[in-house]
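Q: My labmate handed me this sequence with no annotations at all. I'd like to see what the chain might look like in three dimensions before we decide whether it's worth expressing. Could you predict it?
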Amino acid sequence: MFGLPDKGDAPSDLQSIVFREYWEILSDGISGKNCVLSGLAVTGGADMTPAVAKGAVISNGVLFAIAAADVTITAAHATLDRIDLIVVTSAGALAVRAGTAAAAPKPPVRTANDVVIAHVHVPATDTAIATAQITDMRVMREQGPIVLKKTTTPVVVNTNATLQNYFTITLPSGLLLAGRTLRVRCGGTYLLNSGTPTMTLRIQYGGTTMFQDVSIAGAADADRGAWHLEFDVVAQANNDQALNGFITYQNTVAAGRVAAATGVGEMLGSVAVAGRPVTSPINGAAAVDSDTADRTLTVDWTMSVSNVADEIAMEFATAELL
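A: Here is what I predict for the chain of 322 residues:
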């Protein structure tokens, strides 16, 4: 992780100099704007193509999965040294920002929202980048909560009785490993005013259904209800995930309902009354190896009746790594 060798410890004392750019890299990483979440260690070899391990970064607040790959350092100068930076770009691609060869070389200026993972010392006439010439510049965010994805754009579906995806996040390979927790929150409103409607909630991880259930059928109701979903996916091992949380919604039976003075919703009384909110614990499990491929988590809803008067709207969603 981010660090500089002491003077005399690396092949060149250039590797021990703290440049202004390094403070900017460190500040960006600590803020969480441009940082590494996992992996991306860089090692050298017998040529000019260092190897970068798989990993995950956040660039300008966006999560990217990075596959393991080699990067190419351009030919060394005939008489002068150079400092290059290996980065993940704001588009989620590995790249090399080549410095300028000079008697007193400096690292190049980063492109906006580059996530720097390594500084490479390229001495004059060099033909192979050894691991010792590579300085680890990864600013790792390992303590949560770390926001991996959020959306405030409404997702609204009506006149549809097929399964609909409301929230999706793809977790890079090697991120949700043993001891980590993914927390998801989302919520919105619904309208079930046709037939004897039901809603089905499904949560999947890596293609495995961790939870699925259908609400109790009720009478058509012109009142719009509120819903809120919150759950954790806990990695008990790299290939063992446990889900636990709750779903709260106003049931679809109008009897006893007291509308809020403003907004959508109602306070839960001490005695169960038809039309009042229903909170249900949810639990599930999956056995998906999170260290062998990127894995996708989805939150899906299905309405039993296809009608313009049957609608589920999601107003927001967040996913955090704890």
